[in-house]
Design goal:
heterodimer; A: alpha+beta; six-stranded mixed barrel; 26 helices; B: mainly alpha
């Protein structure tokens, strides 16, 4: 019994700081033992009282003692840093560089993967989506009927909501806004547990009955920015896409919607779909299981695990597949926590891999910066060994001295983090502006704000980086022979392990920079490859501008008249070769798809109708884009609403549907319409440049009049800015129709799916790699300079004995070159590993691309030699006599 | 160069546990446990310090120069375990006296205002 108490007492004493323990630990244990003995004699009640009292005492006293010592150490560290301002500033700035890279990436990853939705119990929300099967036959979104069936799984789901995003024009009294509007199932707000800030939210079955008054709920931010939070707006009429709606309420200010990338301005009941958009298929939306339009979130019942929900819903999906084979055979479900499916279930997985890779790269930068600070600290520790020896002689314990060294480097880390914050906030604002500017069509607004979670992680990173940087120098100082240091008059008593460590750090820095630069090189090569891929059209000299006559409530005839008039006036301009309209230009971040099947389905029972890329184009489009027709004809003005619906297909679709046959005159079905094939177009790239050949169909604009389209102009003078001309012409034709995303095709490709991923990758890795190389060369320079300094006397003797400058320089360069070569060798191995991870993000370049590796390795060796040459040069510039006297 | 001794006022007011500790050392060197027992005995268990609090106090008092550790052992027979002994420094003595003066003047003031009765002199 007493021995157990002894053990507990010993453990309790261990809670106190090291110094406290060293001074009073044994006494305290003895005192506790004595008190314990006495209390036991007095009885159980006293004993229990004593134990409670001891516990309370330790819990309150120990933390206070820790804080007191920490305060002392920090004050000492700050004083020490103030006394060495050059060192302090360079160390803090260096670490700030790495911290900015890391914190920035963490803020982005937080926005993408970790920040919970601002709703009730966000952790219970699961995304329910269709798994995109290999032959792209089913989109990830879910049909209304399927959603209703999943909702019925009440053993695992408390409820499930569906929503789908639309761009709409929103008009109150004056001027129309182009905004993102979410069409939501009627249980949307109740399942998310949201309360209105004003008015009311959408109610069950709202808008289901024919003749229900169309209603709209405003997002809080839109209410504030557009209506100045005016409460009298409730009940007011507005025009959404030219149709009358009534504002019934405003969401609470904390609610940011369920879209992670897009800023939603208002919510409309999905039941009002027909009122909202004039799609001919609106009626079937709530009946047809092939009409997959909803993003779905389910709320797990309390106590139900993800696996249980998966099992139950999988069974339900299998049942549906048996009952409705024509639509549901290919449906298999992907159930995942909501945060893992941003910005949508399809992209979520890719984005997670990409963000993990970029966080890894940022961590590498942070490691390099930490190594640099370690190097600075080593140099400083060498010059401070006398101070340390004196303090040790005066009775300071080694543990305490070490603790102080580490506190100093942690202070540097925290200061670095502090400096990094404004840099990160600025960089994220730039990134946000860039993303928001990619297209005006989608109201992109990712939330990159630095919240508590980011701050905590950044703080922890700062502390860890500080400890990492400071631990080795602290240990080196404490291991060094302090007595000898004192006797030798303060010249470093640090043994050779310090020098070895600095050498290893330089090798590591060179290796890691090489890794970063190789990744950068691979992205640059991918980008280069992407730019030379045959897109199926000729992008140089193309200019784009988008307009949405459909959002003004215009009917098909009015839209067509608008499109024609703008096109004709544009084409008549002197500098313009041709002009045409397309529903959505290829390779943008938004695209149009259609499920297509030939009239005669192939006999293979496993055959599924593919999802094809679709574009609706005016007759001049193929010529304007310089696309090559391989068979049949393109469109002409006779292909209109009154004539036979026709379609031009690409080679891939033709060979899939009618292998070895002439496709001209064949029929194919899409969205309930039968189309006659009149032409075959050469294959191109439609959604991204890395895609393998996929099916595509083109329909005449006059037969599928889209609400929104993009004017494509080809000019004889590439690079000419047509922006103001396009705006003027469209304003002339119809001042009510807004123009947006006015840009050359090259910008569209750069910022869209075509080149953006590679540009981003190349930019980030080159930026990080550049930082890494700069730091590594500074590190190498510092080490060689220190080394030369130590050998000044030796060099003096050698030169006095007749050695030439070249001998000395060769000697020093050989040392620098050796570290560079080892670093390069290690780096190539690391880079190869990293490149394997990046494989999925690259295009047309192998992970082991000899050109990239060779170029980067030579560059690094050259930089290292220059960094060594400068101190070598200085060493030979010395007068031998001065060098000898340096001692 | 040793730091200049700060004026006595600098330490005032003392916390009650600190004052008790200094008073406990006024009549001779003691180790931690003895200080603890002495305080409990003199206050009839009204003030009981716990080990952690006590050694934190000792640490502070030592750092402020109010007490010092001493190598003298008053009576080995009373002490079966090796412990650290503490002695009141002249500064500690002055600080304790000043604190008691301060408390006395407060008590005097309270009596003048008849907040508490004067003790009957006998």
């Amino acid at each position: 019994m007493s021995s157990r108490a002894d053990r507990i007492f010993r453990a309790l004493v261990r809670v106190f700081p090291f110094d406290f323990r060293a001074d009073h630990g044994r006494d305290m244990e003895q005192t506790l033992r004595a008190q314990h003995r006495e209390a036991r004699r007095e009885g159980v009640r006293t004993l229990i009282g004593l134990w409670l009292e001891i516990l309370r005492d330790v819990v309150t006293t120990a933390p206070r003692e820790h804080v007191a010592i920490l305060r002392q150490d920090f004050a000492y560290a700050l004083r020490a840093l103030r006394r060495a301002p050059v060192f302090a500033v360079s160390a803090v700035l260096t670490l700030a560089l790495g911290m900015s890279a890391m914190t920035g990436m963490i803020a982005i990853v937080n926005a993408i993967m970790f920040r919970p939705l601002a709703v009730e119990h966000p952790e219970q929300l699961m995304s329910i989506s269709n798994r995109a099967v290999s032959n792209r036959t089913v989109p990830y979104m879910v049909s209304f009927r399927d959603l209703q069936d999943y909702r019925a799984e009440t053993t695992v789901l408390a409820d499930a909501i569906g929503y789908t995003l639309r761009v709409a024009s929103f008009k109150v009294d004056d001027g129309a806004d182009r905004v993102a509007i979410e069409m939501v199932t009627d249980n949307y707000f109740s399942m998310l547990g949201m309360q209105p800030a004003a008015g009311r939210l959408i109610q069950p079955n709202e808008g289901r009955a024919k003749g229900d008054a169309p209603v709209v709920v405003l997002a809080s931010w839109y209410w504030r920015s557009r209506f100045g939070s005016d409460p009298s707006i409730i009940g007011k009429p507005v025009r959404v896409n030219g149709r009358p709606f009534t504002i019934i309420g405003v969401t609470s200010p904390t609610f940011r919607g369920t879209e992670s990338l897009v800023r939603v301005a208002a919510y409309v009941p999905a039941w009002m779909h027909e009122t909202f958009v004039d799609a001919p298929s609106a009626q079937s939306l709530f009946e047809d299981r092939a009409a997959r339009m909803f993003t779905v979130l389910g709320r797990l019942k309390p106590g139900i695990s993800l696996a249980q929900a998966r099992a139950a819903l999988d069974v339900r999906a299998a049942t549906l597949a048996r009952e409705f084979p024509s639509t549901n055979t290919d449906v298999s479900l992907r159930i995942a926590p909501e945060a893992q499916t941003r910005p949508n279930p399809q992209l979520g997985e890719f984005l997670r891999i990409a963000s993990a890779a970029f966080v890894g790269l940022a961590a590498v930068v942070l490691l390099i910066t930490s190594a640099n600070v370690t190097n600075l600290l080593m140099a400083r520790a060498a010059s401070r060994s006398r101070e340390v020896a004196v303090r040790a002689a005066l009775g300071a314990r080694r543990g305490r001295i070490m603790r102080q060294f580490v506190t100093e480097s942690v202070t540097i880390g925290l200061l670095g983090g502090l400096v990094a914050i404004p840099i990160v906030v600025f960089a994220l604002r730039c990134l946000h502006e860039f993303i928001a500017g990619v297209t005006a069509a989608a109201a992109l607004d990712p939330d990159f704000s630095v919240d508590v979670r980011v701050t905590v992680v950044a703080l922890a990173t700062a502390i860890v980086a500080g400890i990492l940087a400071g631990l080795a120098p602290a240990m080196a100082v404490c291991r060094s022979d302090l007595g000898r240091t004192l006797n030798s008059g303060g010249r470093s008593g640090m043994n050779d392990s310090g020098g070895r460590l600095r050498g290893m750090l330089v090798v590591m820095q060179v290796a890691l920079s090489l890794t970063l630069l190789v990744s950068g090189g691979l992205f640059v090569r991918s980008l280069d490859h992407a730019r030379h891929i045959d897109l199926g059209f000729q992008p140089d000299g193309m200019f784009l501008a988008s307009a949405s006559p459909g959002l003004q409530g215009y009917d098909s005839a009015q839209r067509l008249a608008f499109y024609r008039s703008v096109r004709d006036r544009m084409a008549a301009l002197a500098d313009v070769d041709d002009a045409a309209w397309i529903s959505l230009p290829p390779l943008g971040i938004m695209f149009q798809i259609a499920q297509v099947s030939p009239q005669m389905r192939p006999r293979d029972p496993g055959w599924r109708p593919p999802i094809a890329f679709e574009a609706d184009v005016s007759p001049e489009y193929f010529a304007t884009a310089r696309m090559r027709l391989v068979r049949g004809r393109g469109f002409n003005t006779r292909d209109d609403a009154t004539s036979t619906p026709v379609v031009v297909v690409n080679e891939t679709l033709a060979s899939q549907f009618w292998p070895d046959q002439d496709p001209i005159g064949r029929l194919l079905a899409t969205d309930g319409t039968t189309l006659e094939v009149v032409g075959v177009m050469r294959d191109g790239k439609y959604q991204n440049v890395g895609e393998s050949p996929r099916a595509a169909i083109f329909r005449p604009l006059a037969q599928a009049v889209p609400a929104t389209a993009t004017l494509v102009t080809r000019t004889s003078r590439p690079g000419q800015d047509l922006a103001s001309t396009v705006r003027d012409i469209i304003r002339d034709v119809d001042p009510d129709v807004g123009v947006y995303d006015v840009r050359p095709m090259s910008t569209h490709l750069d910022n869209g799916n075509a080149f953006f991923p590679f540009r981003l990758g190349a930019f980030m890795t080159s930026l990080f790699g550049g930082m890494g190389v700069l730091l590594a060369s500074i590190g190498l320079y510092g080490m060689i300079a220190y080394h030369v300094g130590q050998r000044t006397q030796e060099f003096g003797v050698r030169m006095a004995l007749g050695a030439s400058s070249a001998d000395i320089i060769r000697d020093v360069l050989a040392r620098g070159g050796r570290f560079a070569l080892i670093g390069v060798a290690v780096g190539i191995v690391l880079a190869f590993g990293l490149a394997q991870l990046l494989r999925g993000l690259l295009l047309g370049v192998r992970p082991f691309d000899p050109v990239t590796y060779g170029a980067v390795a030579s560059l690094l060796v050259a930089i290292c030699l220059i960094a060594s040459f400068i101190p070598a040069r200085r060493a030979t510039g010395l007068d031998p006599l001065t060098a000898l006297r340096a001692e | 160069m040793p730091p200049r001794t700060p004026p006595v006022d600098h330490f005032l007011p003392l916390t009650p546990p600190m004052l008790h500790t200094l008073v406990a050392l006024a009549d001779g060197d003691k180790h931690g446990y003895a200080i603890l027992k002495e305080i409990a005995r003199r206050t009839e268990n009204a003030v009981r310090l716990s080990a952690g609090t006590l050694y934190a106090l000792i640490r502070r008092a030592e750092g402020d120069g109010l007490i010092v550790e001493t190598d003298d052992r008053p009576d080995i027979s009373l002490d079966d375990e090796r412990r650290r002994y503490y002695r009141l420094t002249p500064l500690g003595r002055r600080v304790a006296a000043a604190e008691i003066d301060r408390l006395e003047s407060i008590v005097e003031m309270a009596r003048a205002k008849k907040l508490v009765p004067r003790p009957r002199s006998n």
